[in-house]
Amino acid sequence: MKDITDKRIQVEGHTDNVRIYSSIKTKYPRTGSCPWRAPRRSWRYLQEEGGLEPKLLSATGYSEYQPVAANDTDENKAKNRRIEIVLLPLLK
């Protein structure tokens, strides 16, 4: 990926719709707070380990609002907890 210089790289975080009811609730009061964690870690990894230019990277959290499956089973909820790496046009 470090050869990519003509695209922006957006790391997107997604969650299921389950509310947080544990000790981490004080740190992340809503499920919507969590989708930022994985993209930020991935963003940092792509920059530090992948050698990508920081100006080409962005991180976005979509929370539960772009599911790929219904949140009706544990298996489907697991599908919705994901990150996606999206290549976008580089705007000048």
Question: What this model shows, in words?
Answer:
The chain is of the alpha+beta class. It has 2 helices and 3 strands, in the order βαβαβ. The protein has helices spanning 37-48, 74-80, and strands at residues 7-14, 57-63, 82-89. A 3-stranded mixed β-sheet has the order 2-1-3. α1 links the parallel β1 (7-14) and β2. The longest helix has 12 residues, at 37-48. It is elongated. The model has no long low-confidence stretch (mean pLDDT 84).
Which SSEs are present, and which pair or pack?
Blueprint: E1 7-14, H1 37-48, E2 57-63, H2 74-80, E3 82-89
Parallel strand pairs: 1-2
Antiparallel strand pairs: 1-3
Helices and strands, in order, run as EHEHE
Q: Which consecutive residue ranges, at least 5 long each, have pLDDT under 50?
A: none
**End-to-end Cα distance:** 20 Å
User: In this structure, how is the largest beta sheet organized?
Assistant: 3 strands, mixed
Oligomer: single chain
Shape: elongated
Going across the biggest sheet, name each strand in turn: 2-1-3
Portion in helices: 10-25%
**How many beta-strand elements?**
3
What class, by secondary structure content?
alpha+beta
Mean pLDDT: 84
- What proportion of the residues form beta strands (DSSP E)? 25-35%
Radius of gyration: 15 Å
How many DSSP H or I helices? 2
